Predict the structure.
Amino acid sequence: MDVSIKEETGFKYIESGSGGETLLLLHGLFGALSNFEGIFRRFSDRYNVVIPILPIYEMPIFEVSVMGLVNFVTRFVEYKNYEKVHLVGNSLGGHIALLYALAHPERIASITLTGSSGLFESAFGTAFPKRGDYEYIKRKTGDTFYDPSVATKELVDEVFGIVNDRNKAIRVVATAKSAVRHNLADKLHKIKAPALLIWGKQDTVTPPFVADKFHELIADSRLHFLDECGHAPMMEKPDAFNNILSAFLEEVSRKKVEA
């Protein structure tokens, strides 16, 4: 993504700086800024689109956890002085968004989840990816999508680099285990903000039944499935994803005005 990264007070992020409400995008465990390129380009003219780089690989090991990342987002939102945010989270980013919303409901305008963890997830199966086995990483990264070609060489190289960096790998495992421990099944009824669920019908990491359960447990939610789509709909079906998100955000704004 051809956008300069800002570094301030321990935070790294990109921000469109546009007028309008803030659209805060949270990436997943192996995510990157590029995951949200389509959203950034589509919405930057109407919203202040912000993507913080979550410090998954930089946090002190004793702080590595889902709640550690929630605390990071809390500090970031306070530092930027955002009054209310529209949260969009993919995979682990969705999990963080939900925990943040539970802790700070007054800061939430809406929540959009896509392939979110928090109820059930199966990332690399029962074992951590084999270090040094590039073809294995390529195949497993490709399995994230319905169309494996979406997993570009750049993306595979990035995942391969993470897996083969001992310090990063340790943090990935610790974060993933923490996510499993923070199951939200008994807390989602507390979410009062309007919520949008956009799910790939062929998502094998957080399968469609997970989306159905989120829809059941979050009161003010609406669910959209995208066919021929895996775990990252905003990457694999960007136009359809953005159209659904745009209509949802307009609905939220309209209801706010009517209220």
About this structure: The chain has one domain: 6-121+183-258. The mean pLDDT is 92. The longest strand covers residues 108-114.
